Structure formats: structure tokens, C-alpha cells
Amino acid sequence: MGTTAIHPQPGRFMVDFEDISMLRDIKKAISMVRGVTKVSVPRGKRLTGYEQARLDVEQGRICRYDSLDDFIDEIENG
């Protein structure tokens, strides 16, 4: 009768959560599990300056001033 050796294969799983402030604690908890060799967080796609500017306009994160003097007054006086 022959024997078969079972070699465990490395595995992965993903965790989705809503509260991003918990990220550090979740990473720490997962890294404490026996057998976990690496915990990493994939980064989102970095936007170019142009892409970020377009997103700002689309989402209304812009300010309009009638003149440069109005803009400077806003900066100086808050």
C-alpha cells in the first residue's frame, strides 16, 4: 500500500470592512494567528494630478473667486 504526502499550499483570504480606522487593529489581530506569515493591505490606484483635479470638480470640491484679490483676502483673513 502506498502512502501519499500532503503538502499544505499557501492560501489567501480577503477581509472587507467599513470602518477604515480599524485597519491597524485588524492587521495586528490577523498577524497573531498561528501560521500567518504576512499581512498586507493592497493600496488603491494612485490618481494623477489631472485625474484628482477632475474628481475634485466632479465632487464639488472647488472654490470660485471673482478676482485674485478676493482669493488672497480669503487666505489672509480665513
Explain briefly what this protein structure is.
The protein has 78 residues and is mainly α.
Written account of the structure:
- The chain is an all-alpha fold and about 80 residues long.
- The protein has three helices and no strands.
- It is elongated.
Name the overall outline. Answer: elongated
Q: Total number of β-strand segments?
A: 0
Cα-atom radius of gyration: 25 Å
In helices, the fraction of residues equals 25-40%
**What is the percentage of strand-forming residues?**
under 5%
Write the layout of secondary structure elements.
Blueprint: H1 23-31, H2 49-58, H3 68-77
Question: Which features characterize this protein?
Answer:
single chain, 78 residues, mainly alpha, 0% strand, elongated
